[in-house]
TrEMBL record:
Entry's transmembrane regions: 12-38, 44-65, 77-97, 186-209, 216-236, 242-265, 286-307, 313-333, 345-367, 413-437, 477-497
Domain of life: Bacteria
Keyword Ion transport: yes
Protein name, entry field: TrkH family potassium uptake protein
A GO CC term assigned to this protein in UniProt: plasma membrane
Record's subcellular location: Cell membrane
Keyword Signal in record: no
Amino acid sequence: MWQKFSLYDFRVIAHYLGVLVLFLAVAQCVPFGVALVLGEWNPASRYLLGIGLALVVGSLLRMCLVTPGKLSPKQALAVTGFAWLVLALLAAIPMALSGHYGSYLDAVFEGMSSWTTTGASLAQDLDHMSVADNTWRFTMQCIGGQGVVVIALSLGLFGRAVDSSLYSSEGRSEHVIPNIMQTTRFIVRFSAAFIVLGTVILTGLCLFVGMEPLRAFFNGLWLAVASFNTGGMAAMSTGILYYHSGLIEVVVMVLILMGSINFTLHSEIWKGRLEHFFRDIEIRTLAIWLSVIVAAFVATLCTANIYDSLPVLLSRAVFTVIAAFSSTGFQTISVNQMTTVVSSGALLIIVFCMAVGGSAGSTTGGIKVLRVGILVKELVAYIKDLLAPASARQVVTYYHVGRRPLNSDLVRANLAVFMLYGVMFLISTIATVMYGYDAAPALFESVSMVSNIGMSSGIIQPGMPDMLKLLYIFDMWAGRLEFITLIALIVSIVASFRPRRRLRRAR
């Protein structure tokens, strides 16, 4: 029997959505403050309007139930699932009024891309966007990378509603520290430390390449936020290629890798337990996967004759693979090269790379590498069972911050996630092809959107059909929640409004 939502459930959900919308109002104070300091009066007025609307909407939602109780698991699913959509719709208002977006839908696409750390953009004339507007894009990406619910929990915004179900509903199943509040605060503080360190280093490098101090600071900050949170959003239309600096790319890769590692493993390393890191199934699977992908991608690039020297080819290939697997999406190979010079084989390799993301419990998107490791482990165990005597029984375990049993429920859950991603890849590709695009770019774009990567083969642009924009918005939303949360939410809502069948009395 499907669980249904009652009227009380909807009121509770509305209340806590209101809390998050009020948090959105506070978040918009960041670009508003930047606009005031820099004298950008038009953006300042737009963000003041955004703050006012968020305060009104958030207050009205909270009034749906003044004193709610503790969130149940199904209520937590709904709050998390709806939060990304509601925040994207409201956050788009100041951007839609900026003149850099063709329509409100384009701004909503940008908002969803920012919150889900996808990094794809429909902004027009990005090179002349105000500092305040860029700050808002990267503020959303920073909050989204950590997780909206994680940030809210770390600040104590949910009060008595703090519960593991709320934390887990955002695709996080592991507690760095037994206490939920302490876990979320560790994630936020650890991330803040690396973002600050990255900002200092990248600001220095931007000064070194000739930027003026204020511009260097903002570019360093934006790069650090986009890299550690594996968002990949860029402040310039040419993306990471704008900086023409190998040192900046190296620092960006280090930040990306740090953001791609499970926060639980970061905690273990911080405690001096290095054996957990090197024995972990995620790290070992990731090392093997990246080695194979880099070797295959380098081989295909060699046949394309894009680069004249081997060092440049290797650096571009390694950077592209790291940006793809981590769902960051920075591109050192231009869209024009992707569609005209790079072979279809190279595109296919990047598609495989994008489909499998970083660690579970990190800032990355896509199918987590832990799921791949578990399924490979189950495959090996299955083959051993076929070869072993009928009387033999084996206990299968895997190492992930300690030895853990590999049971059928875990395998089934991982297979379900793989299947859902695969189905969405297929649906999005078919829909894109129906609009007249070639199959290879359509597949590339679809995997990029569903896995929250943001890399593009040229399809994502302001002039693409509105229905594709809506489809890709849904892809980003569903991919960020790993589908399970969203599907459970949709099924519960449909079941809630389905009329009950009257039982016929037996004559």
